[in-house]
Amino acid sequence: MANSPQAKKRARQSENNRIRNGGQRSKLRTFVKKVLVAIKAGDKEQAVAAFKVAESILDSSASKGIIHKNKAARGKSRLNLKVKNLVLAA
Q1: 68: alpha, beta or left, given left = phi > 0 and alpha = psi -120 to 50?
Q2: First-to-last C-alpha distance (Å) of the chain
Q3: Which pLDDT tens digits describe the chain residue by residue (90 residues)?
Q4: Structural domain boundaries in the chain
Q5: In this structure, which topology does domain 5-89 adopt according to CATH?
Q6: One-character DSSP codes across 2-60
């Protein structure tokens, strides 16, 4: 348990950051799922539009430290591959 005032403040800040980061992480997963749902439905236009939004959110999350930059790059790469395969298939 935190005893010093500095440690107590850091504990409060950490809890607030954890809650905020959880919301950001949830938002990230939601937008990635939107891309995957559009791909599964075979909707090219919606998949491309959703990918652009998800790409931006992945970059934003990486810059804020929500996820690692390599995880963001890997996620964008995999989503882009799926979108390209959908566009090329039709």
Answers
A1: beta
A2: 59
A3: 789 999 999 999 999 999 999 999 999 999 999 999 999 999 999 999 999 999 999 999 999 999 999 999 999 999 999 999 997 876
A4: 5-89
A5: Methane Monooxygenase Hydroxylase; Chain G, domain 1 (1.20.58)
A6: --SHHHHHHHHHHHHHHHHHHHHHHHHHHHHHHHHHHHHHT-HHHHHHHHHHHHHHHHH
The verdict on pTM exceeding 0.90 is: no
In this structure, are residues 89 and 43 in contact, taking their beta carbons and an 8 Å threshold? no
Helix crossing, 44-64 with 5-41: angle to 10°? 170
AA identity, residue 67: I
What is the C-alpha to C-alpha distance for residues 89 and 86, in angstroms, rounded to an integer? 5
